[in-house]
Design brief:
With 363 residues, this protein is α/β, with parallel strands linked by helices. It folds into two domains: 7-121 and 354-360, Enolase-like, N-terminal domain (Enolase-like, domain 1, 2-Layer Sandwich); 127-341, Enolase-like C-terminal domain (TIM Barrel), CATH 3.20.20.120. 39% of the residues lie in helices and 20% in strands. Strands 5-6-7-8-9 form a five-stranded parallel β-sheet, with helices on one face. A four-stranded mixed β-sheet has the order 10-4-12-11, covered by helices on one side. Strand 6 (194-198), helix 7 and strand 7 (222-224) form a beta-alpha-beta unit. The mean pLDDT is 96.
Amino acid sequence: MSAVLHVRALRGTPVAVPLARSLGTSAQTIRYAPLLLVDLDTAEGITGRAYLFCYLPAVPAAVAHILDAASGVIAGARVAPLDIGKTLTRHFRLIGVRGIVAMALAGIDVACWDALAIAAGMPLAAFLGAAPKPMRAYNSNGLGLIEAEAAADEAEELLAGGFSAIKMRLGRPTLDADLAAIRAVRRRVPDEIKIMADFNQALTLAEAKRRCHAIDGEGLYWIEEPIRHDDYAGCAELARELDTPIQIGENFAGPHAMATAIAARAADFMMPDLERIGGVTGWQQAAALAATAGIGISSHLFPEASAHLLAASPSAHWLEYVDWAAPILAEPMQIVDGCGHIRDTPGTGLVWNDEAVARYQLP
């Protein structure tokens, strides 16, 4: 039987972790991962952990302020993720649970579930009713908007660890440049390697039709977010017209957005983001929606926690692997034979490397 836990305090630590590989996307080039480390301390001495990816260096401190405000609201409360979520949603109703508020609440939710699984002495996957198992992963560490032969060189490097799939970014100034990069990568890696491609919302619908039809026969496994993420009608049009599957979902702001996208038949595959979908609680709702609709569900970022959630998702598809948090973790995720491995330790397995955290901490 799980122990009853009570919130003592929340702590947020902002860090900027240098990426092993810079990632050039159609939006910007990412060289550092601005993270907020979330610690939920309980009166019983157990600490639940999570981290948030904050995209821009100024954001972790802003989210930390929201975390501080939330700490005062839930101090002394029983660690019950649904109840805490309702309490904090009421508290922040006037500003709205979106943006940095939603980010903070997702981090709190994940930390709550982590604490409960630790108290139960079970990996999070097992606590959610699933057998922890290796999750097949694609390597998303790189393959940004670099020239074709450099992309091919990097693609070969990304196969280390036995990966059977990699993701490249598209959205170069011209279609010809994108085609050259796709073909260079496809020539260089073995035929059985799956290549995912992500436009990061770079295109108008008209340009997306032009480019996506042109690359439709290039052997891509999926085309991700070619247009604005919430243009579900446009995404549905592309999904109907193309043989290559359309993937969306990292920008779903909660499960209701995913339900709307499913109703619109906006994509063949979907990939909720742990932070934006609403933490573990939101992910479970999203996984149920995907399973009911018969849609393969993949993760976006946060591989350490996402591996547990995919293990407990009926229509689990792919784990997106990025090593962005690895430098500040005492035990980074291990990739073996192209799969992310869930450790047989309680919770999500997140433990901070205190020395590294101090080195990368933001003022």
